[in-house]
Amino acid sequence: MAVYSPTLSRIHRHEMRGVWGDHVPPAAGGIFILTMERITRGLLLLSALVAGLAVLAILGFLVWFSLPLLRGEGLTQVLSWRWRPFQGEFGILPMLVGSLCLSATSMAVALPMGLGLCCFAHGVGPRKPAALVMGVVRFMTSVPTVVYGFVAVFLLVPLVRAAFASGSGFSWLAASLTLSLLVLPTVVLVLHAQFELIEPRVRLTTAALGLTRTQAVRYVVLPAARRGLLAASALGFGRAVGDTLVPLMLAGNAPQVPGSLLDAMRTLTAHIALVVATDSQSTAYLSLFACGLILFVTSVAVNLTLRRLNRADGGRA
């Protein structure tokens, strides 16, 4: 609760002369501060309510349009392993497996790379190259997703096709490598923010122990950044699951469960983009709402898991 302070009143007295003239009431500064605090709290509360209602509205929209699938054999048709719309088979499970596999392999590449780059920027590497690395990472956040996909189509896909002499090159591997670059800035910047919070707190301690910058990062900062690592993993995974253009352009879009990294696959997001462009009335179209609901639940599950891990980590601390 805000408390009236004579000192703050004197500070704001001069600023408020333009409003009150030369006769500023003694308590005017305190009243002004209290009013601004109440307005700020009201605006923050309103923003939180709007955001929460928007999320609930999206969930309600997806559930409402998914209800027709619960009648008859609709749910059985959607939760199956075959997508053959012209034969009455509308299974989306291969696309669900494709989304999870692609996101997992992308994070398997992006997370170690992001951790290494962040450690390089915070003491393992020289200062000037480290600053250059962080500048490049920040620049990567401004590059449109379609540019990553377009460049990969002409550079990465031919390399995959030539290196393995199998298939067209549009595969799980090509999409995974490109998607790992796309989520890399998210991982690096989240870890970077966590490192910047920890380093000032332990700088004097590590210096007193005679640790070098590399040793301080390895033995002190990195173990203390566990929460940041969990947050980077969750946000990166969510970014990978929700991306559409990279899997649409590079994964081959075959509605099947991939048997190897060189097989074509289709994700839920790419499936939505492909079907919504060609259909708007059939069961195939209705299955898209089930896809959206699955993506929504996946995102919520990732965030809830992150919160639970953070609470458990805080309890042990």
Automatic annotation (TrEMBL):
Cell membrane as UniProt keyword: yes
GO cellular component terms attached to this protein's record: plasma membrane
Q: Which organism is this entry from?
A: Desulfocurvibacter africanus PCS
UniProt xrefs under Gene3D superfamilies: MetI-like (1.10.3720.10)
Name by which UniProt lists this protein? Phosphate ABC transporter membrane protein 1, PhoT family
* Topology with respect to the bilayer: Multi-pass membrane protein
Q: Localized where?
A: Cell membrane
Which sequence ranges are marked TM in the entry? 43-70, 90-120, 132-157, 169-191, 228-250, 284-306
Keywords linked to the UniProt accession: Cell membrane, Membrane, Phosphate transport, Transmembrane, Transmembrane helix, Transport
Ranges of residues in domain ABC transmembrane type-1? 96-306
Looking at the record's lineage, which domain of life comes first?
Answer: Bacteria
GO BP term, example: transmembrane transport
